[in-house]
UniProtKB/TrEMBL annotation:
The lineage of its organism: Bacteria, Bacillati, Bacillota, Clostridia, Lachnospirales. GO terms for cellular component: cytoplasm. InterPro entries: DUF896 (IPR009242). It comes from the Bacteria. Its main location: cytoplasm. It comes from Fusibacillus kribbianus. Keywords: Cytoplasm. The keyword Electron transport does not apply. It is found in: Cytoplasm. Belongs to the UPF0291 family. This is UPF0291 protein QJ036_08925.
Length: 75
């Protein structure tokens, strides 16, 4: 998500509060918000993929490997 896109989200938000949006602007706002949420989710996933847990027995569990194993069992 670029700074330009974030700026546009904010512009549309302020315009919606001040005077309302056209149907085209509402559609643009919904798309941009969806893209923003997806970017946040992807960033969080990348962060969590790099987290390791130190278990009480001293072993280390990588969250990425736990998630991959869980995904294999659910499919």
């Amino acid at each position: 998500m670029t700074e330009k896109e974030i700026k546009r989200i904010n512009e549309l938000y302020h315009k919606s509060k001040a005077e309302g949006l056209t149907p085209e602007e509402k559609a643009e706002q919904a798309k941009l918000r969806g893209d923003y949420i997806m970017a946040i989710r992807n960033n969080l996933k990348r962060t969590l993929d790099n987290v390791s847990i130190l278990e009480p027995d001293g072993s280390v569990t990588e969250l990425k490997k736990v998630a991959e194993a869980k995904e294999r069992h659910t499919h």
